[in-house]
Amino acid sequence: MSHPKNVIYAQAGGVTAVINASAAGVIEMTRHHPETFGKTYAAINGIVGVLEERMVDTSELDEAALNRLKTQPGAAFQACRFDLDTIDENPAQYERVLEVFRAYDIGYFFYNGGNGSMLTAQKVADYCSDHGHPVTCIGVAKTIDNDLALSHCSPGFGSAAKYIATSLLEATMDLFSMHNTSTKFFVLEAMGRNTGWLTIAGGLIKTVLPDVPLIVLPAERAFDQKAFLERVETLIETQGYCVCIVSEGLTDADGNYISIENIEHTQHNDYTQLGGVAHSLSGLVANTFNCKTHSAVPDYLQRSASHMVSETDWEMAYRAGKAAVQAALDGHHGVLPTIDVTSHSPLEWRYQNVDLYQVAELEKRVPDAFLTDDGMDITQEAIDYLQPLIKGERPVKFYNGLPDIAPIHFDLVSPMLSAYKAIK
Questions:
Q1: Where is this site: Important for catalytic activity (predicted)?
Q2: Average pLDDT, consecutive stretches of 10 residues, N- to C-terminus, the chain (424 residues)
Q3: Helix (H, G, I), strand (E, B), or coil: what is residue 88?
């Protein structure tokens, strides 16, 4: 029999409040099967850490460190936004990955990321296998955007949705208490480049405040300024104030973003950084109705709030890591375990494996059935989908009045290869 092959795990893309639960799931599961898996390494900064040979031997993590990892916000092993070039453009990148995998006897690659990361993982595995070093590649699902197709939801979304809904609820109570003599309009900006999943999560405040004067503006619907202002005016006239939640990726009828923060120019692509749409809407309302307005952009807060984690979401993320390892044990390659709901009341689910290439090319958007005809509110069907995903809370350990979440420090393995610098 062949000896157990080593494992490498890496985190990619924007983080979630529960991504490290997935990391713990992978590490614990591989430890339980020493007959199949040798050492489990974690790359620092995703695929960049593989290229630059910056890795941690997770066998050195004791039980206390693993338990700490399960509640740590951010990406404990430091995620990256780095897409490999095509093989034709930059064969040296692939040659380097293969060199590292051979040096460390890597037979399994678990990549924890979103849609784009899945393509990177598959390209790496295909190249290694084509060059005589077979590598089993399994994706580990993660994204607060909830745009992962072929899955009921994405690990990471439920906690971000819980934070958004909670923040909007609290801000609404603030606005209600002040609107008679102060602010009349408040707008919160949620992440979501092409999808409005986090935006519609704000609509959950209707379960607490059924008559709340709320406007929901998801990325799936083009912004109609005239209809929006008419709605704002009606709500302020009838209820005294208006609260709004908007997708950062809101566009006009021609598909142009309402607000762009910055455009980052790289060697091969331009990356549009969105942001500021809430501020734009706040100014529009203030100027139109000559009233006081406020806007807020939670930005990184919504994806890193470890004090507001959904127990359901945490469980999904933890089991996603274990499901990825189980897929490898079952002989699968090039797949991503996704969430398949088996019961809606109570919510129960299992993981089913889908092809990495297939899921990487798809994007799940908010369905029309979740939005009212005017596109400015959510339906009961949306509430029924969202509510189970935010349920449950996890206790947070505090130290000197603040969450005990100082970064975990890891010792890197000593390099075996020549130095390499990953260039974007």
A1: 142
A2: 88 94 98 97 96 96 92 93 87 95 97 84 88 94 93 97 98 97 97 94 98 97 97 98 96 87 57 79 97 96 95 98 98 95 94 90 92 97 98 93 90 95 84
A3: coil
Beta partners for 272? 263
Query: Is 301 a known ligand-binding residue?
Result: yes
Q: What is the pLDDT of residue 273?
A: 63
248 is in an annotated binding site: yes
Q: Is residue 238 part of a domain?
A: yes
Alpha helices, DSSP H, located in 104-193: 115-130, 157-178
Regarding whether 28 and 40 lie in a shared domain, the answer is: yes
Residues 250 and 148 in one domain: no
- Residue 192 labelled as part of a binding site: yes
Q: In what order do the strands lie in the sheet with 55-57?
A: 55-57, 37-43, 5-11, 106-113, 136-141, 335-344, 347-355
Domain for residue 421, yes or no? no
Was 115 annotated as part of a binding site? yes
CA distances from 350 to 12, 153, 220, 227 (A): 24, 12, 29, 42
The whole domain housing 175 covers 158-303+368-390
Q: What is the pLDDT of residue 1?
A: 45
Known binder of ligand: residue 144? yes
Instruction: Tell me whether residue 26 is in a domain.
Output: yes
> Nearest-CA neighbor of 390 among 303, 302, 310, 319?
310
Would you say 9 is a known binding-site residue?
no
The reply to whether 277 and 212 lie within a common domain is: yes
Tokens 């614990």: give the residue. 28
Q: DSSP string spanning 242-303? A: EEEEEETT-B-TTS-BS-EEEEEE-SS-EEEEE--HHHHHHHHHHHHHT--EEEE--TTHHH
Q: Is residue 249 part of a domain?
A: yes
Q: Are residues 214 and 315 in the same domain?
A: no
Domain count, the chain: 2
pLDDT score of 85:
85
Q: Please indicate whether residue 270 is annotated as part of the active site.
A: no
Residue 198's nearest CA partner among 219, 229, 183 is 219
Shared domain check, 162 and 136: no
On whether both 231 and 105 belong to a single domain, the answer is: no
398's enclosing H/E stretch is strand 398-399
CATH code for the domain of 255: 3.40.50.460
Q: How many residues are there in the chain?
A: 424
Q: What is the pTM of this model?
A: 0.94
357 and 385 belong to one structural domain: no
- Among candidate residues 83, 145, 147, 313, the one labeled active-site is 145
Are 278 and 166 within one domain? yes
The pLDDT value recorded for residue 118 is: 81
